[in-house]
């Protein structure tokens, strides 16, 4: 399970919408199962079908995570025109162990769908997302 505060959930959705029709990407940080930070990243591929995070931005986010005393909990990206489920490329490129992979679907732009998965060695396991206010 991964818990995302409503404000971060809304920011995640806004990021996906603002990048449309291209995929957006980023990192969610926090502790345990609780997300406390969202880091928007540049999709250097500038594509509506895949993404690559900008390496210097990734390095800066890792430093910021350490500075805040939190860890990377998830890598997120959007699917502007398809469902919120990992593509074959998403599964193949899921190389960061121990993190969730969050996908925002804008297939129905009026009703975005956010889903989370654990992906390891090609095995995809859906993960519950709990959306709630910070406490």
Indicate the topology:
Layout: E1 2-5, H1 6-19, E2 25-31, E3 34-41, H2 55-68, E4 71-79, H3 88-92, E5 100-105, E6 113-120, E7 123-127, E8 129-132
Parallel strand pairs: 1-8, 4-5
Antiparallel strand pairs: 2-3, 2-4, 5-6, 6-7
Structure overview:
- The protein has helices at 6-19, 55-68, 88-92; strands at residues 2-5, 25-31, 34-41, 71-79, 100-105, 113-120, 123-127, 129-132.
- The protein is of the alpha/beta class and 135 residues long.
- The strands form two sheets. Strands 3-2-4-5-6-7 form a six-stranded mixed sheet. It has a two-stranded parallel ribbon with strand order 1-8.
- Strand 2 and strand 3 form a beta hairpin.
- 24% of the residues lie in helices and 38% in strands.
- It has one domain (2-111): 3-Layer(aba) Sandwich (Cytidine Deaminase, domain 2).
- The two termini are 17 Å apart.
């Amino acid at each position: 399970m991964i818990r995302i505060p409503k404000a971060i959930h809304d920011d995640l959705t806004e990021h996906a919408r603002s990048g449309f029709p291209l995929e957006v990407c980023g990192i969610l940080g926090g502790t345990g199962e609780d997300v406390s930070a969202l880091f928007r990243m540049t999709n250097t591929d500038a594509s509506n079908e895949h993404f690559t995070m900008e390496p210097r931005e990734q390095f800066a986010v890792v430093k910021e995570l350490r500075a805040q005393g939190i860890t990377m909990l998830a890598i997120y990206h959007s699917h502007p025109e398809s469902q919120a489920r990992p593509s074959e490329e998403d599964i193949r490129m899921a190389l960061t162990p121990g993190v969730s992979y969050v996908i925002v679907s804008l297939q129905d732009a009026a009703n975005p769908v956010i889903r989370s998965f654990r992906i390891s060695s090609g095995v995809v396991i859906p993960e519950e997302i709990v959306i709630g206010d910070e406490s």
